[in-house]
Amino acid sequence: MHTDSKIIWEKCLLYIQGQLSEQIYKTWFSPIVAKHFKDGVLTIQVPSQFFYEWLEEHHLPLLKQAVLQEIGPHGKLEYAIVIDKGNKKQKPLMVNLPTYPGPVPRDSGEKTASSNAIFQLNPNYLFDNLIEGSCNQLAKSAAQAVAKNPGGTAFNPLMLYGGVGLGKTHISQAVGNEVRTTFPDKKIAYIASEKFTTQFIEALRNNHVQSFTEQYLTVDVLILDDIQFLSGKERTQEIFFHIFNHLHQLKKQIVITGDCAPRNLKGLQERLLSRFKWGLTADLQRPDFETRVAIIHSKVAADGINLSSELINYVATHVDTNVRELEGVLISLIAHASLARRDINIELAQQVLKHIVQQNPTLETTIEVLQQQVAAHYNISVDDLKGKSRKKEMVVARQAAMHLIKKYTTHSLKSIGAYFGGRDHTTVIHAIQVVEELLHTDPQYAHLYELIEQKIKSSITNSY
Ligand code: ADP
Ligand code: MG
C-alpha cells in the first residue's frame, strides 16, 4: 500500500541520514519518492538514470543495510526511474536492483552490526579509498596498525585530531570496518560524541544508565568521534571516563577523534585528557597539492567520470581547504553538469568555483527584488517565501523563486539557499529540479511561470 511504502522508506531514510553528511543526504536521498511496497519489494522513484547509477555506485551498501533493517533479510529494493521527462504520458521504467549476495541473519546474535544502532559503521569509509599524503601518513599508519591488532599495540588510545573535513571520521571508521572484516567476532562501537551525550541524557531520564553503560563496557573496539562535543558536559564525561578506564584495563582498543590537540581541548576534564598520553596522538593536516590531485583522481574514478588532468589541476589549485570541501565542489560540478545536461569542463568549473570563492555583492538587490516579485505574484509575504512553512502554496512559490533566481542572477546555489533562511544548496538543486520537471510536464504551471517571468524581464529592462 501507498502509506506502507512511505512509512518504510521514511524509516530507511532515518537510518541512511545518520550515516551521511547532510549535503550528500539531501542531494541524493531527499529527491527520492517511495512508490509502493508489495511482497517485500519496496519501490522507490528516482529522478533520472544518472541518479540511479549514482546511488548504485555509491550508496548500495547503505541502501541494502537500510532495507535489511526495515524489511528484513528477504526485503528487496526496486527503482522506478524517470527515464524520459519530455513525454507527458511516460510510465516510469522499473529497473531491478541486483540481488543481494546472501541475506545477513538479522537477530541471530548481538554481534551483528545491524542489531544495535550504536554499533553502526558506514561501509564506505575504508583504508582502501583513503588517499595517503604527508598530511595524514602518521594517522593512517597508526590506525592501520591498530586495526590489525586492536588493543594489542602501544597506540591505545589512538587519538586523531584535526580540522573539519580532514578525514577524522573516515579514518576512525576505517579502523572499525577493517576490524569487522578481519575479526568478525569482535564487537565494535562507533559513536559520535553528540549522539553519545544524547543517549546518555535519555538514559538518565529513563533510568537506563546501567544498560546504557553496559553496552559500551562489552565492546572490543570503541570509537568516539568528535570528543570536543563533550566539552562542558560534566556528567557525560564522567560516564565516558568510567567506560574508558574499564576498556583500557581489559586491553580493549579505544579510538578518539577531536578537532584540536588534547592540550587545546577546552572544557574537558584534565584526568580524561591525561589518559591520552598513554597512547598515541596523531594529527591530520590539510592535504598538499599532490594529495589533492590524487584525491580528486580517486573520487572521479570511483564515479566513472572522466576529467581532464587540466581540469583536475584547476580544481586542486583552487580548493585547498579540506577534503570535504573538495568533495562538495566535485558533487556540485556533477550536479550542475547533470542538471544542465552539459559536459564538465573548465568553463563549468570556473563557474561553479566562482560562486564558491567569491560572490558578487551588486546582485544582492536583484535577489531581493526577485523574491518580492514572486511573493507578490503568489500573494504571500516575502517572509513566508523565505520561511519554513511547508504549506503547498508556499513551497510552490519558493521553488519557483529559487528557479528564477538561478536563471536571472549569477548567485551560486549555496548563496541562493542562504537567501532563503539559510537553506542548504541541495534544497535549491531539488527546487530547480522540481520546477524543471513541472515546466516539462504541466502546461498550466508552465503558463503561470511564463507570466512571472515576463514581469521580471520587463522590470529588469526597465531598470537599465
Ligand atoms: P572529518 O571527520 O575530519 O571532518 P571526514 O572524515 O568526514 O572529515 O572527511 C570528509 C570527507 O572527505 C569524507 O567524505 C572522507 O571520505 C573524505 N576524505 C577525507 N580524507 C580523505 C583522503 N585522504 N582520501 C580520500 N577521501 C578523504
Ligand atoms: Mg567527522
Automatic annotation (TrEMBL):
Domain annotation Chromosomal replication initiator DnaA C-terminal: ranges: 366-435
CDD domains xref list: AAA (cd00009), Bac_DnaA_C (cd06571)
Binding positions for ATP per the UniProt entry: 165, 167-169
Alphabetical list of InterPro entries matching this protein: AAA+_ATPase (IPR003593), Chromosome_initiator_DnaA (IPR001957), Chromosome_initiator_DnaA-like (IPR020591), Chromosome_initiator_DnaA_CS (IPR018312), DnaA_C (IPR013159), DnaA_dom (IPR013317), DnaA_N_dom (IPR024633), DnaA_N_sf (IPR038454)
Key words of the record: ATP-binding, Cytoplasm, DNA replication, DNA-binding, Lipid-binding, Nucleotide-binding
An individual GO BP term: regulation of DNA replication
Location of region: Domain I, interacts with DnaA modulators: 1-112
Region (Domain IV, binds dsDNA): 338-464
PROSITE patterns: DNAA (PS01008)
GO molecular function, one term: DNA replication origin binding
GO cellular component: cytoplasm; plasma membrane
Domain AAA+ ATPase span(s) in chain numbering: 154-284
Compartments, as annotated in UniProt: Cytoplasm
Main location: cytoplasm
Pfam families to which the protein is assigned, alphabetical: Bac_DnaA, Bac_DnaA_C, DnaA_N
Assembly description: Oligomerizes as a right-handed, spiral filament on DNA at oriC.
Similarity remark: Belongs to the DnaA family.
Function (record text): Plays an essential role in the initiation and regulation of chromosomal replication. ATP-DnaA binds to the origin of replication (oriC) to initiate formation of the DNA replication initiation complex once per cell cycle. Binds the DnaA box (a 9 base pair repeat at the origin) and separates the double-stranded (ds)DNA. Forms a right-handed helical filament on oriC DNA; dsDNA binds to the exterior of the filament while single-stranded (ss)DNA is stabiized in the filament's interior.
Protein name per the record: Chromosomal replication initiator protein DnaA
Source organism: Candidatus Cardinium hertigii
Lineage of the species this protein comes from: Bacteria, Pseudomonadati, Bacteroidota, Cytophagia, Cytophagales
